[in-house]
Amino acid sequence: MFNSLTGEITLKGDERLCLQTGGVEWEMTVSRKALERLPRVGEVARVYTHLVHREDAMRLYGFSDHAERALFIDLQKVDGVGPRAALKMLSGMDREQFAQALDTDDVETLSTVPGVGKKTAQKIILTLKGKLTPSGDGPTRSMEDDITTALVGMGFDRRTARTAVAAAQKVLSSSLKGEELERELFKRSLAIAGGEGAGA
Length: 200
Known about the structure:
This protein is an alpha+beta fold and 200 residues long. It contains nine helices and five strands; from the N terminus they run βββαββαααααααα. Helix content is 46%, strand content 19%. A hairpin with a 2-residue loop joins strand 1 and strand 2 (16-21).
């Protein structure tokens, strides 16, 4: 399914984002924190996505980065927490704050998040402490696959593309995160695939 969509932001509203890409305007539900992080209307952005399919509806959720999406999915592992509740939690607290609260069994801090009472906070700690999905600060499998697919689309065979991505990862700085990491990984992978070598 969709990993991300890249296009022009056409609308930013209350937990709502519209993105124009390839002649299609996508409507997504997003957290308030994601709205703050994403560019202004009229600018191009990459939005990570997660499709929730129910019997009576389909809703596309958007995220500013891998870490926010991973936390959204993890929160739904907690009994009684669905997509809407998870989104409200993301609007009230970022991943680092969640992780710290989990590590310290901080029920009081979690209880300050909209829609989270003490009982739910206790459930979150019990379910997720020490079990959060890796945030994606390093190259993730989906990131590797995206870049490999992009290189194949540029005319490289898949084996060459995969080898280039693997080689590029070995020379990346460990300080790179998120979008900066992805841009640099793509740049180096393209250079290696094109025969310019790992030092390009």
